[in-house]
Structure formats: C-alpha cells, structure tokens
Amino acid sequence: xxxxxxxxxxxxxxxxxxxxxxxxxxxxxxxxxxxxxxxxxxxxxxxxxxxxxxxxxxxxxxxxxxxxxxxxxxxxxxxxxxxxxxxxxxxxxxxxxxxxxxxxxxxxxxxxxxxxxxxxxxxxxxxxxxxxxxxxxxxxxxxxxxxxxxxxxxxxxxxxxxxxxxxxxxxxxxxxxxxxxxxxxxxxxxxxxxxxxxxxxxxxxxxxxxxxxxxxxxxxxxxxxxxxxxxxxxxxxxxxxxxxxxxxxxxxxxxxxxxxxxxxxxxxxxxxxxxxxxxxxx
Length: 282
Known about the structure:
Helix content: 25-40%
Strand order of the largest sheet: 2-1-3-10-4
Structural class: alpha/beta
Number of strands: 13
Oligomer: single chain
Distance between the termini: 55 Å
C-alpha cells in the first residue's frame, strides 16, 4: 500500500531538492491547513512531516518521531538598524513573532508583532521598532518568500543587519528546526522508506532532548525548560539544559557529555541536575 505523507504548506519549501524529489517518489503528498486536526487525519497508511516545535503537546503525545531531517542552525537572529544584542538594555523592547520566555529570562522587554514579516522589516527600517528577534527556523521560512533576491540582500537594501545570537543566551525551543517524519503511536512503522531521509546524529540529539523535556514536563509545570543536544564527529553527545523560574526571575543551566548511545541516561542525569538546582532556589 502506498503511503501518504501529510504536511503543512511550508514544510516542503524547507526540504533540500534531493529530499523533496525522494518524497515525491516515495509518497503521495497531501497538504494540511494549520487548523486541521493532525491526529484525526493520520492513520496506518499516513505519515506527517512537520517541524516538531509547531505541534502542540497534546498532539505530540499521540505521535512518535521515526526520522529527522538534518537539522539546520538553530541560533536566533537579531534584526535591527544599529543595535547589537550586547547593546540592548532594560529599556529596549524586542519585537517577537512568537512568545519566547528566554528573552524574559535575560530581563529584556518584548512585544509580539502580529503583522506580516514584510511590515516588520519596514517598521524596523523606519525606526518604529528598535529591534526584532526571530528564530533560525522562522528566518528560513521567511526567506522562501524572497526567491529573486536573498533575504540578507533585502535587509541591506532596507539598511538593516542581522546578528546571530549564541544559543546559551537564547536557547532553541524544543523541536525547533527539527523536521520530523511522525506517525500515530502503535501504527505499523515505515522505517524502510524513511532511512533515505533520516539524519542519524540529528535523530539521536532530538531523542535526547525529547527525553529531557518529557521528564521535566512531568516533574515541574511551574518553570520553563529547554535543552539542545549535539553529536560530534567522534560520536560524543553533548547536552545543555536551561531552566527559568518566572516568579524568582532566575535562570539555571546544566550540561552533560557522554556517548551518543547513552542519550536517555544523559537526559535523565541532566533532568535530575536541573530539578535539584530548581528546588534549591524555591
């Protein structure tokens, strides 16, 4: 039976040409609107391609990730005329496309910009806004709209510049830049076809991050947590975790390194460390 691959409108534009060609060869493609119930539309012969961070927790708990495309850079970017990230102060107000607790954890003020991305850039160029912070995945999606001219060139034409922010300052949200092939839990796995798309180091890193988030979500719902993991060429898995206690306005960090095959154990160690630190400040 031919498998059907469900996806949101922006999903295919993020795929490299070779992966897109394979997807067209291996699956029947079907686009979903963002408002459609993902779980309702999945079945034994249907898979979903989506950026994991865009899926609600109530949806993710019904799904399992079978494969992950090679992850793109996950650093956030600051867009402005003149201001650098180091130059921001408590009076600065960052424009965001979506809420980001890690901006708050640094003591910075923010506002959600609800207009079109082109309007955001125009307001920045006219100094109606001082600076905007967007994630790497948001930047990549917006760049698709500038096919005849690169987004970076367009920024220069508007007198704007972009600055990459260290992930230790603004860490990625869970699932950010993680484009996964997902299926309903308990469905017959389609691993043979997905091996052509899967990037093993990205999947190993994602699974460690998912294990950490599962543990922290179950243990503490009063603080914000995230983590990012990376696999080295030597097969080492390094993980950093961040916690933010909004009432105390305190931010915590923890880090572990080990063998890539110990991802679950490393995630458990990291979660234990983070919970101990959080309990100590409460």
